[in-house]
Amino acid sequence: MTPEWLAAPAKPLDQVATEAAHARQGQLTKPPGSLGLLEDIAVRLAGMQGREKPELERVRIAVFAADHGVAAEGVSAFPQAVTGQMILNFARGGAAVSVLAQEQGAELEVVDVGSVAELPPLPNVVVQKAAMGTANFRRGPAMDSAQLAAALQAGQAAVQRALDAKAQLFIGGEMGIANTTAATAVACALLGLEPEALAGPGTGLDAAGVRDKARVIRESLALHQAALSSPLDVLRHVGGFEIAALCGAYLSCAQAGLPVLVDGFIASTAALVALRIRPEAADWFFYGHASAEPGHARLMDALNARPLVDLGLRLGEGSGAAVALPLLRLACALHGKMATFGEAGVAEKSHG
């Protein structure tokens, strides 16, 4: 059961705005290309926003939280109760991404798409559970088709709220004990890589714990091998509700023409699934940071992506993307506010 809305293509970029922004870059008071990637960011955002001078005043961060049945296999250093505790922490403003959002004037919401916790109503927390956690995919499929559709739709709904708030950029985060295990399983299935090549410490496993995590993933992939015939099949059998919600959000952003700043390993895995479904959505994605999770570099290679910063982060929550946000804003400011050669009365390079 594939949700019909997934079939809609990504919105095309505005080529007129792209060309105008590129031309402007050639007129600014600097040698051509001297601001490197910052120039590319500004030109890309111009094409996304359909304006020569893009801006990023209104940013929306949505953190999707869910629990994972595979946590029963001992693949995390923390107990499953932490997921619900962190939802409370997000709501109270105490998490890293909460601080980053507050410092940068970004709107933050949390979407409980499948935690096992029963929480009271909380500020800026939307409850849209696909189920009370996924099933243990070491024993059977993580979710059924209806649950997968519900998780994807939770991502779509979060993007609609962002659009209603006139957001100019979307950052998706995630929280869920054992979700690096699910993300690794999804990435291995889609990339044809061995679990040992991608499995990392997650919340803090030691070397023996990482080896055991890889074993659980290997056995799980073997169990589901015959059913892993499409990206959505992979998500349903070995994914997580928050990974599916991120995938749905990214596809919705591309369909609506809302730029995306992708976070680390788990978010990039969701982006990989999204691009296997709609490859042209890649035009709408920036990648915030190079995660310290060992599998992230392999994902970046597969996505032909260049992370904006490399600070050794591996927290998740959307925190790495939020840290990279100022670079996108600075790219817009430089592009829009620098003087042209004509405005400044500066002589341009001689072509003689």
Describe how the helices and strands are arranged:
Blueprint: H1 15-27, H2 37-49, E1 59-66, H3 81-92, H4 96-104, E2 107-114, E3 125-127, H5 145-164, E4 169-175, H6 179-191, H7 195-198, H8 207-224, H9 231-238, H10 241-256, E5 260-262, H11 265-277, E6 285-287, H12 296-303, H13 319-337, H14 341-344
Parallel strand pairs: 1-2, 1-4, 2-3, 4-5, 5-6
Structure description:
The chain has 352 residues and is of the alpha/beta class. It has two domains: 4-54 and 335-344, Orthogonal Bundle (5,6-Dimethylbenzimidazole Phosphoribosyltransferase, Chain: A, domain 1), CATH 1.10.1610.10; 59-328, Nicotinate-nucleotide-dimethylbenzimidazole phosphoribosyltransferase (CobT), large domain (Rossmann fold, 3-Layer(aba) Sandwich), CATH 3.40.50. The protein is 48% helix and 9% strand. It is built from 14 helices and six strands. Strands 3-2-1-4-5-6 form a six-stranded parallel β-sheet, sandwiched between helices. Helix 1 runs antiparallel to helix 2, helix 5 crosses helix 10 and helix 6 crosses helix 8 (207-224). It is globular and about 70 Å long. The N and C termini lie far apart (64 Å). The relative contact order is 0.17. The model has no long low-confidence stretch (mean pLDDT 97).
